[in-house]
């Protein structure tokens, strides 16, 4: 089949239903009635020749082929965005869609002002469309690989030669325990590396245990892929672990957590800008990267 403008509209409706968790969200996002959404989906299914999703009392459910169509459509969306951007550059304008993925739990970091970067991009490009995904690092790399996003801001992931990485920031981490943990009441003098290493640690699954370099004898009991899960397990009182200082401050201020390490044992976690090598960096992406890097101070010793 050859895709027509009506097929592209149907595909846009299909993607919106999935991305918004069903018909209700898509109705709000697209400003369409449910009958209009159903019309476009049915027309698209007739064109492709198979069922994309099931609609009924159980709600909206993707078929296996529908899931494959959705994944394949990501590269089409990326290509359209790249085409729009290239046309804009020929007219000496910045246009197109900015699709960015950001590692979770960064919003509380005043030295990483993603909100100010977005505000600057929207101010300079009035017709810009921005898609922002907040997720754990593995999910961001997965979306980047499948053309779901164009740029990811994440810790380094050793993801191979098909991607480019640019270091732009260091996020400072410290070691914390819960008020339920035996170390919470320990004196500062008692908090030696040897004493701390006798307790169970939680580490990030993607960091290759780099955050416990100061405690080589540490016993790793749990690995976690998200900071929020790590914080919950630290709050349980059964393990200790490193967290971003800006993220942990809320529990430290409320007396639910205590910082255990000395200033010399803080951990500088790098954040990188990741994109695909075979993908041309568009004008709107260059604008985002420029606004981001000029606002972030690359200083591993930042307080």
Distance between the termini: 58 Å
List the helices and strands in order. Answer: HHHEEHEHEHEEHEEHEHEEH
Give helix % range.
25-40%
The total beta strand count reads 11
| Shape field | elongated
Please tally the helical runs, counting DSSP H or I stretches of 4 or more residues. 10
Question: Could you walk me through the main structural features you see in this protein, from its secondary elements to its overall organization?
Answer:
- The protein is α/β, with parallel strands linked by helices.
- It is 40% helix and 23% strand.
- The protein has ten helices and eleven strands.
- The chain has helices at 5-19, 23-30, 34-48, 64-90, 114-124, 137-145, 193-197, 227-235, 245-253, 283-295, and strands spanning 53-56, 59-62, 97-103, 129-135, 151-154, 163-178, 200-204, 219-224, 241-244, 257-259, 267-276.
- Strands 3, 4, 5, 6, 9, 10 and 11 form a seven-stranded mixed sheet that branches. The chain has a two-stranded antiparallel sheet with strand order 1-2.
- β3, α5 (114-124) and β4 (129-135) form a beta-alpha-beta unit.
What is this entry, summarized?
The chain is an alpha/beta fold and 303 residues long. The protein contains 10 helices and 11 strands.
């Amino acid at each position: 089949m050859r895709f027509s403008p009506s097929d592209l509209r149907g595909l846009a409706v299909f993607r919106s239903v999935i991305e918004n968790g069903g018909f209700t969200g898509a109705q709000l996002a697209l400003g369409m009635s449910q009958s209009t959404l159903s019309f476009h989906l049915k027309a698209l299914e007739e064109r492709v020749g198979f069922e994309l999703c099931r609609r009924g009392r159980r709600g909206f459910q993707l078929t296996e082929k529908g899931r494959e169509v959705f994944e394949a459509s990501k590269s089409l969306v990326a290509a359209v965005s790249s085409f729009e951007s290239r046309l804009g550059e020929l007219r000496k304008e910045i246009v197109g869609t900015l699709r960015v993925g950001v590692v979770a739990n960064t919003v509380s970091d005043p030295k990483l002002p993603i909100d100010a970067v977005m505000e600057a991009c929207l101010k300079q490009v009035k017709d810009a469309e921005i898609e922002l995904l907040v997720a754990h690092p593995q999910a961001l790399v997965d979306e980047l690989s499948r053309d779901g996003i164009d740029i990811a801001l994440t810790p380094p992931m050793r993801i191979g030669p098909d991607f480019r990485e640019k270091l732009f920031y260091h996020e400072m981490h410290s070691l914390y325990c819960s008020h339920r943990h035996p170390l919470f009441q320990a004196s500062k003098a008692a908090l030696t590396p040897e004493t701390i290493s006798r307790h169970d640690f939680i580490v990030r699954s993607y960091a290759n245990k780099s955050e416990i370099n100061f405690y080589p004898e540490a016993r790793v009991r749990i690995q976690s892929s998200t900071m929020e899960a790590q914080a919950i397990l630290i709050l349980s009182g059964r393990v200790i672990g490193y967290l971003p200082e800006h993220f942990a401050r809320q529990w430290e201020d409320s007396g639910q957590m205590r910082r255990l390490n000395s200033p010399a044992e803080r951990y500088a976690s790098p954040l990188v800008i990741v994109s695909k090598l075979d993908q041309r960096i568009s004008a709107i992406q260059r604008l985002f990267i420029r606004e981001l890097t000029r606002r972030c101070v690359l200083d591993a010793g930042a307080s």
